[in-house]
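Structure (tokenized):
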């Protein structure tokens, strides 16, 4: 059973890593970006532009799967990841099954959020912020914001939109209050970074920078 939490954490870490280093890439000193998957990075840039122009919606990617090469490429990549974790199924079945669930959940949540934007804004506000903030090189997690909290890359756009706890899941208020207090007590530097990110985002929005189209060649990773 230990494979279940390990699978959940590994999947969330994979979301964070691949989103940052494959889909966005990192800026090169001479300009442009370096990615571990150039084709996926180019597709992802197009996704960002459409989402920014259409206020978080992307029908071109998800409304008609049969006629969307990019959606098919996304599913193919998820299936390859599932095949990779399937290798250890004989010795770690709970881990493998958990990663398969996470792959399905990623597809479901990500596609649904860009087709039903109000649902997406409420369900995964960290991903809404990823697309609609002034700096789109942050908020790398999609299904849950765990590794963005751990890595200090969660940039919250506003207090009224943000998730009510670092796990990004509904909890009884007394549990949530205790969790938030413990998180701030034992990870003070992480929350100092998160508070600074929130203040910086508010400053940029006050300057109207959230209306600009993202420049992927210039934004810092």
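Design, position by position:
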């Amino acid at each position: 059973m230990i494979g279940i939490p390990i699978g959940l954490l590994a999947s969330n870490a994979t979301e964070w890593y691949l989103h940052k280093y494959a889909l966005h890439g990192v800026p090169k000193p001479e300009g442009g970006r370096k990615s571990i998957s150039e084709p996926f990075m180019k597709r992802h840039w197009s996704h960002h532009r459409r989402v920014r122009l259409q206020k978080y919606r992307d029908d071109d990617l998800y409304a008609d799967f049969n006629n969307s090469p990019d959606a098919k490429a996304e599913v193919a990549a998820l299936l390859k990841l599932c095949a990779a974790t399937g290798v250890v199924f004989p010795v770690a079945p709970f881990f493998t099954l958990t990663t398969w669930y996470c792959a399905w959940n990623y597809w479901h949540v990500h596609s649904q959020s860009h087709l039903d934007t109000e649902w997406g804004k409420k369900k995964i506000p960290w991903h809404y912020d990823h697309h609609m903030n002034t700096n789109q090189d942050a908020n790398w997690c999609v299904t849950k914001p765990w590794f963005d909290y751990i890595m200090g890359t969660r940039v919250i756009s506003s207090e009224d939109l943000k998730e009510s706890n670092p796990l990004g899941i509904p909890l009884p208020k007394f549990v949530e209050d205790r969790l938030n207090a413990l998180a701030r007590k034992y990870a003070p530097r992480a929350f100092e970074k998160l508070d600074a990110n929130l203040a910086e985002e508010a400053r940029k929005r006050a300057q109207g920078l959230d209306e600009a189209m993202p420049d992927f060649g210039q934004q810092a990773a």
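Reviewer-requested clarification: Strands lie at 26-27, 33-34. Residues 23 and 90 are 31 Å apart (CA to CA).
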